[in-house]
């Protein structure tokens, strides 16, 4: 399975979108793509989803024009279930064809215990620490 995680620092200009499309091509179509600091709303990211050729997505809009915004995309054949989403993270579980289960969490900002242990995050951290495999990006 191929995964790309990228802090794109804004996708509001053509150069950033072209850069993302080039990364995607060079990596030979990732199965999962996590973007942080998109600085875009869901409507605009949905248009990007079609350019990338990825069937599924979940988005956390940026709260201001100055930063934030998360997006997780995945291919049609990937069995991915989103378990949590906030302005700081998207947390999901992936079930492989052979039944192997692993967790993926994409974070925005500095990854530290106060962020992980913040209100509403303890359940995610507990479940993730019990999981045999956990991939995360910050």
UniProtKB/TrEMBL annotation:
Gene Ontology biological process:
base-excision repair
Q: Which InterPro entries match?
A: Endo/exonu/phosph_ase_sf, Endo/exonuclease/phosphatase
Report what the protein is called. Endonuclease/exonuclease/phosphatase domain-containing protein
Write one Gene Ontology MF term: DNA-(apurinic or apyrimidinic site) endonuclease activity
Recorded superkingdom: Eukaryota
Identify the SUPFAM superfamilies for this entry: DNase I-like
Identify one Gene Ontology CC term for this UniProt entry: nucleus
- The species is Sorghum bicolor
Quote the Pfam families the UniProt record gives: Exo_endo_phos
Per the database record, which ranges form the Endonuclease/exonuclease/phosphatase domain? Answer: 5-106
């Amino acid at each position: 399975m191929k995964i790309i995680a990228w802090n794109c620092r804004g996708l509001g200009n053509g150069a950033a979108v072209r850069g993302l499309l080039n990364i995607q091509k060079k990596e030979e179509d990732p199965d999962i793509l996590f973007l942080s600091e998109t600085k875009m709303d869901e409507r605009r990211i949905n248009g990007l989803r079609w350019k990338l050729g990825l069937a599924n997505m979940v988005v956390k809009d940026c709260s201001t024009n100055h930063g934030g915004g998360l997006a997780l995309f995945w291919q049609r054949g990937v069995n991915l279930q989103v378990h949590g989403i906030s302005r700081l993270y998207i947390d999901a579980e992936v079930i492989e064809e052979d039944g192997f289960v692993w967790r993926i969490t994409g974070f925005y900002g500095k990854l530290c215990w106060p962020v992980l242990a913040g209100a509403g995050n303890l359940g995610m951290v507990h479940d993730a620490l019990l999981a045999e495999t956990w991939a995360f990006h910050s």
